[in-house]
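Exercise 7. Given the encoded structure of a 401-residue chain, write a plausible sequence.
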């Protein structure tokens, strides 16, 4: 009788050992999968960045095309394919015009940078004059040891890749519009369940709606801020007014740190051209006030409750995507974070991730659950019980061995 309790004790020990091995294997496989995905993200970043931007542009215009295709002009109705062709043409024209403007401004800045190289070095060294003349001379010598021409060649090379990336984005957008007609059918066939397909479609619509609202508000705020910076530099008769306005527009899409970097660059450019601290301080105050008013007052009013993201999570996302994809990754960090938070909020096992990414720790669902999710399925319960019984029999077999 005293030997009978031994087998259950060995079975429990065996189950514990199997659970630990399974957990260890899961963690190891997760680490390997993350390393592989990170390697692919770095190696294929040119294509993946173009694809991500194309998907965002496609989502921004997809709803507008659906609305336009329902309009009627007398007896005529704008067909879906005609609206799609017009959208691709407008997106292509806008991207090419923006790329041309960026390349023109880059060439203008690069062509005149060499003339200001000596003045810029002296201006940077004068910032350390309050620490003593020896420190100023040391800083000047250090700054002059930097090879400016190498950075200029690198910037010129980056400007040359802008056009090729724009062409790739246009191609992706065109193929996305060609496939949008069959997307719902493909989703239903992929899910093999209409209710689940509608659920996935609703989640994707929620992501698109939030990201679109965020990008539209950011585009408006960045455009106004860029014009304000352009006006400030034009009033003081400074060069690179258009370039600084465009740079401010671009950097304002980087949350938290973009506006700070833009303000510092504008102030430094002004200080190099007009070596008077009073003028540079005045421009810094005016640019900072514009950034604060538009970024911290107007932006939250227009954004509303669209973004429920943690500030610390945004910084982590910026650091990660900036390390992986550079500056384009910092632009895409917030849309990616919104998508991850919404998807994780609808997956019970991944909901803790959504809680950590959300601002208040309460990621909300924007649409109710379907009837199939609200009511328990008896067949699913039976299958779950059968799976539990099978798992129990497996543990007993392992324990017996």
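Solution.
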């Amino acid at each position: 009788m005293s030997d009978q309790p031994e087998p259950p004790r060995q079975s429990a020990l065996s189950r514990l050992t199997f659970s630990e091995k399974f957990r260890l294997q899961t963690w190891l496989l997760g680490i390997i999968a993350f390393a592989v995905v990170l390697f692919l993200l770095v190696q294929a970043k040119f294509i993946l960045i173009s694809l991500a931007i194309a998907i965002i542009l496609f989502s921004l215009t997809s709803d507008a095309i659906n609305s336009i295709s329902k309009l009627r002009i007398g007896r005529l109705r704008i067909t879906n394919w005609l609206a799609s062709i017009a959208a691709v043409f407008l997106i292509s024209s806008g991207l090419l015009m923006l790329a041309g403007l960026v390349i023109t401004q880059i060439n203008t800045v690069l062509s005149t940078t060499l003339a200001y190289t000596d003045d810029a070095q002296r201006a940077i060294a004068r910032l350390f004059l309050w620490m003593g003349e020896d420190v100023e001379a040391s800083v000047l010598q250090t700054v002059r040891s930097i090879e400016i021409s190498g950075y200029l060649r690198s910037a010129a090379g980056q400007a040359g890749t802008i056009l090729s990336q724009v062409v790739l984005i246009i191609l992706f957008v065109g193929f996305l519009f060609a496939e949008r007609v069959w997307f719902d059918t493909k989703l239903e066939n992929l899910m093999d369940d209409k209710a689940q397909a509608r659920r996935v479609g609703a989640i994707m619509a929620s992501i698109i709606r939030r990201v679109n609202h965020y990008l539209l508000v950011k585009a408006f705020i960045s455009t106004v801020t860029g014009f304000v910076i352009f006006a400030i530099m034009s009033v003081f008769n400074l060069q690179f007014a258009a370039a600084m306005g465009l740079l401010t527009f671009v950097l304002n899409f980087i949350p938290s740190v973009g506006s700070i970097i833009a303000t510092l660059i504008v102030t430094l450019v002004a200080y190099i051209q007009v070596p008077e601290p009073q003028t540079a301080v005045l421009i810094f105050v005016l640019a900072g006030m514009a950034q604060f008013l538009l970024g911290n007052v107007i932006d939250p009013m227009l954004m509303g409750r669209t973004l429920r993201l943690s500030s610390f999570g945004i910084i982590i996302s910026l650091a990660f995507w900036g390390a992986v994809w550079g500056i384009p990754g910092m632009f895409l960090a917030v849309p990616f974070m919104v998508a991850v938070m919404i998807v994780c909020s609808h997956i019970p096992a991944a909901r803790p991730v959504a809680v950590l990414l959300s601002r208040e720790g309460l990621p909300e669902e924007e649409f109710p659950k379907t009837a199939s999710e609200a009511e328990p399925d008896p067949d699913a319960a039976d299958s779950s019980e059968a799976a539990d019984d099978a798992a129990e029999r497996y543990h007993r077999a392992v324990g017996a061995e």
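Remark. Residues 366-388, 393-401 have pLDDT under 50 and may be disordered. Students should compare their own answers with the one above.
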